[in-house]
Amino acid sequence: MTAITTRLEIPLDVLEGIAGGDLERVGGVVRDVTSKKVVMWLREGTGSTNQVPSQVFGSAAQSLSALSGAGLILNLGISAVTMIATLNRLSTLQDSINNLSAEFNRDRGVDFESALESAEDAMRLSNPNRRHDLADAVKALRSPRKQLETDLKIALKAEYWAEAQYFLTCAMYAVTSMARCCLEMDDYDGAMKNLTEQRQTYAKYARQVVTGLLGEKPAIYLYRDVASEDVRRFISVIEWVGQQEFIELLIETLRMDFWNEEVIEIPIKDFREPVDDFFSRLRGEKISRSNQRNRRLVENLGHAEAIIENINRLEGFELEVRSMRLTGHTFEEWQQLTSSGDDFTILIPEQPIDLFAAN
Questions:
Q1: Contact yes or no for 318/192 (Cβ under 8 A)
Q2: Are residues 314 and 294 in the same domain?
Q3: Potential cystine with 334: which of 54, 194, 314, 329 (Cβ 3.0-4.6 Å)?
């Protein structure tokens, strides 16, 4: 069994490696950019004071923190996924989008909650039929997952980006819950199958949603009155969508609208009127079109970052499951690797681990 130490703080050399580009974070896994060897796993706690250091999230830290409170961000590690936590996040997420369009079946959330509760019962109870009950829980979660995917496709076709993000996030919760049930049975292959297949499918949907959020003319993010930090965030997002270096995207698509004055006048779709704008109107204050547009651009950019983060976290879950097997830990043993109860925990292997050496 590979020796793994636990810590409460991220080593300075790891933070420097992430900042300098030598290391990359994939969900809750930190690895070498070149060799892909894992140097650290991140695991959030459950305590009220639990905080993941913002340095690991870079420029997206603020938006991810805000949207996490709305239930739009998955857990950092698969070992932290519980049915109770998922139910709580789902409740928060439903509260944030309670005006779904009439096309969508509002009862599907109830079906999902019922399946999660059954899965929680199967995990919590110790009886001879536990493995059978967990297998039934996986099957029960499959139905709401497929229903959510159906609603996701409807939202994408109608270009309802808020609804699309909601259904995509809920579907991801279903997949991670199914994988967690598999791990409770020590069914690593079942967990990996659920995570790998759905991540690849959801990544395609995610690119559609993010493209929609960036708008018909994403070159607007390069306009002179958009903050430099937001331009950098946009570059990261557009590179993820286009799967190309920014310079290539700039040459092939974005530059076509550099001198197109109509781009500046195109209304930016948003999820809702920003809170600050709402209260400013109550006070009778005027809001410049430029300021309003930029707020909406930044808000949409934050939601795009959240979607990308979730896809990366699904991949991180895959890497974490692979890590358990390669280091010789059962899921129960892996869960017990904590520093101090409910606190945020860092797991560091004795030596960087190549998760794909055997392949």
A1: yes
A2: no
A3: 329
